Amino acid sequence: MNARQLNPRAFGRRSQRGASMMSVMLGLVIAAVLAAVVYTQFSESQRKARISENTADITSIVAGTKQLFGTTNTLANVTLAVAVQSGAIPDRLRDPGLNTATNKYGGAITIPVAATANLVGIRWANVPRSDCVDLIVGVQGLMRQIAIGANQVKPLDGVINMATASTACDAAATAAIDLSFGRQ
Asked: Which residue has the higher pLDDT, 109 or 75?
């Protein structure tokens, strides 16, 4: 007689244990794959929310500035302090007790160059590489000109050069985007 004939249950248990271990391993692999998919989707939705929030903030600044200064031909008088004090830059972005403002990326909002009669520029600093191009695309319709450093992404009253935008956005971990808007 062989061992199987003497104790048939012992062999059945071993194969059951093996099948149970395989089921557990398969379940763990499926759970890991699902967790990776959920994490990826969550990260992407957070990124889109950041872009949407910053696009809304920029839109609000443009609308507020045009409303307060554009209709009276006083765009040339816009400075950061004036924009903050007048409410052209929303209170939610204002640094408490100061005439400065910070965007949702933690970067300073500045007006880097003197405004002209028809054009005001703001700098949106600390934009992550992953959000840069999408943020530019999101606000480009409001802007007359867009630059990242020395790179003209959108020439005055022109169209976006996506190759330049991608290259400039990928050049560093974060970017400062210069956005110019005003009357044509």
From this structure: 109
